[in-house]
Model the fold of this input.
Amino acid sequence: MNAKNKRTLKQDYLLVKRAVKLINDNTPHFVFYIAFYSFCCAAVSVGSNYITASIVDELTGNRRIKILIILLSCYLLEIVLKILRDYSWRRVRTFHIIAPKWEEMLLNAKNFEMDYKKTEDASVRAKRQMITDRSDESGFNELTVNIMYFFDGLFYLLMCSAITVSLFFRHAGRVLSGGERIIDSPLFTLAFFIIIFALSFIQYKFNIRFSKTIVKANQKKSLAQSRLHYYFDEYLDDSKSAKDVRIFNQSKLINHSFNRFYDEWGSYNKTLYRFMKKRYDYYNLFYLISNALTYVFVALKVYIGAFGIGGFIKYQYCIARIMESGFDFSVCFSKIRANNDYIEMFFEYLDMPSEMHYGKIPTEKRSDNIYDIEFHNVSFKYPGSDEYAIKNLSFRFKVGERVAVVGMNGSGKTTMIKLLCRLYDPTEGYITLNGIDITKYDYEDYLALFAVVFQDFRLFSFTLGENVACEKDYNKSKVLQCLDTAGLEERLKQIDRNLDAVIYKDFDDDGIEISGGEAQKIAIARALYKDAPFVILDEPTASLDPLAEYEIYSRFNDMVKDKTAVYISHRLSSCRFCDKIAVFHEGKMIQFGSHEKLLENKDGKYYELWNAQAQYYIEK
Done:
């Protein structure tokens, strides 16, 4: 947060208020338990001191047995308070344990609902990473800790002030000399507290200054920490990188980079430690001065006979606690304001608005799968780009048709699919479903029309059945049928736990490892299970050789039956079986027709691409 965007106290208060409400919604009565825990702690400590001081006064004074018994029995109340304190602490501690994961769940929930284009936005991903990197030093956990410090200081201040105020009315019970009368005067007591509060205020100002410096040092440290995190928690923890590390001897490069970032991280830690040490050195200095003044003040009061040894114990403790409360207030106040940098960033992430229009019209559920989709002069630029990825695209998908979309890398094939599936909205033009602009349809309803196998599809370390059905409770016979149709019937016979087998070994030592081809078949089975009227294969087999790709596409073509199917590939030989072929080049659809018709145009792009690729597949 720079100086121009410095928050006001009201803005900080509103941030804390919203954060506390969010915590209470997740953990009902959480703030009550924090306050009650702090109250019990203060009551036990102050009460114990007060009872001890009263017992000392009684033992050195009247020595009344009944009074001593009453005072000693008050310790039973202390036991009750300790039991209540421990109970409330368990409730508070539970949130402290789950808070980091709870924050991640909130961020992930936002990821699920945000516009797809934001998930590809580098600035959005950078903000999410910055939140993650700073969560070790900041966050809702840090906020609750400082709220607890606030309540600690508040209850100690109230209880000790209630006891200490009697100092203004405690006077010596004898005739005093001139100097002694000054010590006995309420003005002397007032002057003492003015000095104490002045020292506390100076200490607060120092603490604010040091806190700002510590926040800046923490921000720099988190940047270096994120780089270390990349090497050791992302790159080296990824089993796939282990091959490259060994083959290319990357250990030297990684160690060099690690040492550089580790030194940088270490220097920020040293700076941070230096400032924190300086802050506590100042605190200790002010505490020693204030404590010395307190001892002198209370001792003088005892000397003139305003109260006895018990009063010395009681008032010295209470004044010290009042001073510590002042320090607690200054620390928690400055830390809460500093932590609000994180809270503000967190809420900015959660509050990112949707820029896409979400309609309300439900899509018509048709048993005949007659859905007519048409592009009307559609153009599209990716956010932050001045160049069109798609330009003036107009064409129509006919029901039950097999359409291949071919072209060189970067020609706009995948972009067209993203627009079709409403992952992005067109920059210009529009797309219709059965004559209605697709932006007017309910978004979830519209997405239900499509089953897509992307080039970079992902499988999870869930069970095989869950990977296909994408839900916990699923139709097992349907999943088995889809896997059989996708060509995994023989592999299934080799799996002991069948659909309950976990894919990969991330969370289960008995998990199954699958090949790239098997993963593709599982992804295809997932598309089949959805049973959507439009099925799309967006180069999921790009890593395979053309013959293997053709085999999968041909098999898939038999699977989709009467559905409308779109096959995207930059290899033309894989898509000969399609009814129509759309040829993309530099963001435009430049040809559309059957394989035979397109080859008749020897000046066309399709003829050029076909002959350039065919030479590698012709047997000599």
